[in-house]
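Weekly modeling sync, notes
Attendees: AB, CL, MP (scribe)

Item 1: holo prediction request
CL wants a bound-state model with alpha-D-galactopyranose before deciding which constructs to order. AB pointed out that an apo prediction alone won't tell us much about the pocket. Agreed to run with the ligand included and paste results into these notes for async review.

Input as submitted:
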Amino acid sequence: MTDTTLEAATALFLDLTGRAPDGVWSAPGRVNLIGEHTDYNDGFVLPFAIPHRTYAAVGVRADGLGRVRVASTFAAEPVEVSLNELDELFPTASGTAPGVPEWAAYPLGVAWALRQADGVASSAATGTGLDIAITSDVPVGAGLSSSAAIESATASALNDLWAAGLDRIALARVGRRAENEAVGAPTGIMDQMASMLGEPDAAIFLDCRSLDANLVQVGIAEAGLAILVMDTRVKHAHSTGGYGERRAACERGAAIMGVPSLRDVSVDDLPRAEELMDDVTFRRVRHVVTENQRVLDTVKVLRDEGPRSIGDLLVASHASMRDDFEISVPELDTAVEAALAAGALGARMTGGGFGGAAIALIEQDAVQQVSDAVNAAFAASGFAAPVIFTVVPSAGARRDA
Ligand code: GLA
């Protein structure tokens, strides 16, 4: 799977330019084990990188014109702009810049944000023009961070070719800035950090306030378990609608509590929060506060007891997103309920919500049984068939060639 995508990126580059790329870089999508909508509240998350990757074949242009051209299998036409023009295109207040299709705003936004990063702006090398060819096998719109995969692959390539010298965390910040200010999605930093820092068999326990990241061994395979992804194929976009509204409710809740962010509210503060705010704001706050605690609990349980014991935390997380944060959809609830009824130890929607994918923690030998049960439940509800596959925690961004 991976190799064909790498070769496809090289072939696309050759098509575009008539020559071989200077290198190929790649970065993965992610699944979040637990900790949803906590990242932009300065809280805790526990994602891991998945085997699905985006590849960027990149070469320095010989014409000396300082132009950047991006091609991808997402679209027939490449997009070309001058690097100086990027400062006029971005930031965009909301939505993408005029004349820039959304897929191209990710790599171009990364080029723009990287040129503006601390310590980079003065480097002459960032004026060097580039050709970029992108291919990906990360499902798009499935809540598996196909966008962070593009951002992290592109950021890694540009960092090397422009000799910008940024570390992985700085590159994650570049990717997030592209997403926020070039694509117009007001997201947190979880996805880019997971894509940059992923390691095989480990989840990344990230404090989104300090950006302190610690690898936590998940030991899924050793425990005889597997993680199933159930992509509902209900598409979502975080540049519109519900995601931004949830974020605004969290900011409102923090302001009412008189703290900089909901990270500073604990489970013990919830009775006071309930007295101070309207019901909807309170329930949004309760999700974030209890979810932060669930991340801490999950890390502790993983370390002390192993993955067999985290199921109830996953189930509680889903219930909180469904009832308090109200970001689930019937397809996600159906996937979670069917997986649990078929014997999953735990299951929850993963990612921003309003569609996308759910995950289930299952026995290794129950993949077929749980998949059949989820498929049957979707058919019985009249939903389009989901796409179901297993994932293992995998490597983060890297140079492949
Ligand atoms: C999306 C965003 C992340 C995070 C999740 C919800 O994936 O990109 O920053 O907020 O939603 O946990």
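Recorded for review: The two ends are 17 Å apart (CA to CA).
Action items: CL to compare against the apo run; MP to circulate these notes.
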